[in-house]
């Protein structure tokens, strides 16, 4: 069946929906090409094209009622790449582990909200920070008094308190050091999405859950569950755009860093973060 190209304008962002079918490709997969606001009359070739796999990760990335990508991180990266005169190609959603594998192989160019680590420096380059993340430990609100004294991962392991944690991602050096012991003691279970993690907490698969604080609160509210944070703050750190080292250039990274600096000074990025309650 022949496909079609559907062009729409959403404010300053031109979105092209590619619905063409190709052999061996899931017909439901859609590629969103965001030509980030170049003048309509004379459109020069863009200096960079960055492929990003969609990730349902509210409130950072999700689809609105019209199925358009939105969210805190999506708005931030759209503004940054528009300023850097780049094109963002949003690919279909992938499981976290496969998304990470394809990025390392150079099949994807960009990942959001990345922590800069020594291991990742072997295959990636990092922008300057564009926001901060907060990682916390949560329990059901009714159980907070029982667990609020736990202030280290060693204390959690010694007390044999079951813990849920994301299967993929960086959650600080303390957690990285504690993870082998938690796994060996049988205290650790993992989840693939925050939706799954909150459901597992509700089903009492564990007493505590680790993860991005805003994402956990958002998902618990969506599922109608009352959760509360332990005083123990696992991580508060800057996050970066992570570009694949083999498929992108230092010049592209320099343009992105310069764009972030201009947008911070202009107040554009602070205004986006403020609308989502982030500072």
UniProtKB/TrEMBL annotation:
Keywords: Signal. It comes from the Bacteria. The keyword Signal applies. InterPro entries: Solute-binding_3/MltF_N. Residues 49-279 form the Solute-binding protein family 3/N-terminal domain. Gene3D superfamilies: Periplasmic binding protein-like II (3.40.190.10). This is Transporter substrate-binding domain-containing protein.
